[in-house]
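2024-03-11 09:14:02 INFO queue: dequeued item ABC transporter ATP-binding protein, len=274
2024-03-11 09:14:02 INFO validating residues
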Amino acid sequence: MDSTLLSAKNLSVRFGGVLAVNNVSFDVKQGEVFTLIGPNGAGKTTVFNLISRIYTPTSGEIAYLGPQGMLKLTDQPPQNVASLGIARTFQNIELFEHASVLHNLLIGRHTHRQTGLWQDIFFTGKTREAEILAREKAEEVIDFLGLQHYRDAFVAGLPYGVRKVVEMARALCTEPKLLLLDEPSSGLNVEETDDMAFWIQDIKNELGITVLMVEHDMSLVSKVSDRVLAMNQGEVLAMGTPREVQADPGVIEAYLGSIDDVSSLRRQATQEAA
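2024-03-11 09:14:37 INFO prediction written
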């Protein structure tokens, strides 16, 4: 049985004369953590924006296993993406700062709204039931991510690391099948990054959510990723396990320079240590 949740085929994106993504293909399997890595400008976030439908590919397509079976995601309008079971966080946190943590999470429940305008205005029985269910789901996510202490606090007064977790919590409130995490460790210290690794593993193992991640921190990548796709200058360099990709000569060169450069750095470090 095919376990593919998302399949990108021959994706290319051109902005004027710049080819930002060039013929990129990969499959994301259900229940895995799949990570995109690469130097700045490699095209990773552009691929994320294609999946989110912020961008439309110049060529190629993306297939996704929606509620009614495989569909062509590139044909879907952006406003339909969340209702298909795809949620996303951003490298630059996008929260309502002057609202509480709970209210930010309740916003994430909008994709499950089943009441109409007049029902909401008159706060009918169906609206009350929907409100209770939304709050129950939000409280479940608060408990899952250990945010009870911050439940009623305004986002504007929270530490940066907590805000990152709140944004992930809001994404989880949509009950996604596929969670897109854009640089989840960006701006975090070592302890907070370790906590983030813990949450990502629990999201996969306990909630059964597939994770597609863009990340620079290779320690986090190694801890949580089942497979890694390395990109450079909009193209695929290597794909495999974290160990396989980090050992790939093309990946080493993209990050550190040529193999000769790396050997020279190692010799220099050895001489300095001596």
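2024-03-11 09:14:37 INFO annotate: The chain has two domains: 1-85+176-274, 95-174.
2024-03-11 09:14:38 INFO item closed
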